[in-house]
Amino acid sequence: MASDENEEFEVLDLTSIDRNWINRVFGDLSRQSVAKQVAIGGASGWVSGYLFVKVGKAAAASLGATILILQIAQHKGYIKINWNRLNSEMETARREIERRARRNYGGVIQNIFLRNNVFVAGGFFVFLICAIKKVIKLGSEEKYCIF
User: Fold this and answer.
1) Is-contact 36 26, C-beta < 8 A?
2) Residue 84 and which of 41, 65, 133, 146 are 20 to 30 A apart at CA?
3) Which is nearest to 71 in space by CA: 61, 62, 59, 80?
4) Is position 27 within any domain?
5) What is the DSSP letter of 145?
6) Structural domain of 138
7) Is residue 28 part of a domain?
8) Helix orientation angle between 34-76 and 118-136, rounded to the nearest 10 degrees
9) Does residue 12 lie within any of the structural domains?
């Protein structure tokens, strides 16, 4: 314990971090070559698709188990759910989220990022779908994208 008091610590100044890091990383990308834009979009799409499938399976399993446990607990009488109140509060929350999203983010992604980085977005979505198809392996035979 005594040695812990004399130990030196480095203090990180987080105020100097650029808050708009997306513009710093992707801002110049619209001026790069088409091949570089498609490559970066494709790589990020492939990683996103792979993670979407892997994390999505775990999330779906845990959500399904939670709903199943809640239904069993309600049926056995351990808990009582006021469905009318729950539905009205969910509707109120949905409206509030939509209102805030429209006010804060209305068209920002579509108008700025996609317009300036068409090739990045195209590569992202193509490889996102390819990664999802490759991981899921639709049907009895394996189907791969042409890439």
Assistant:
1) no
2) 65
3) 80
4) no
5) -
6) 35-147
7) no
8) 50
9) no
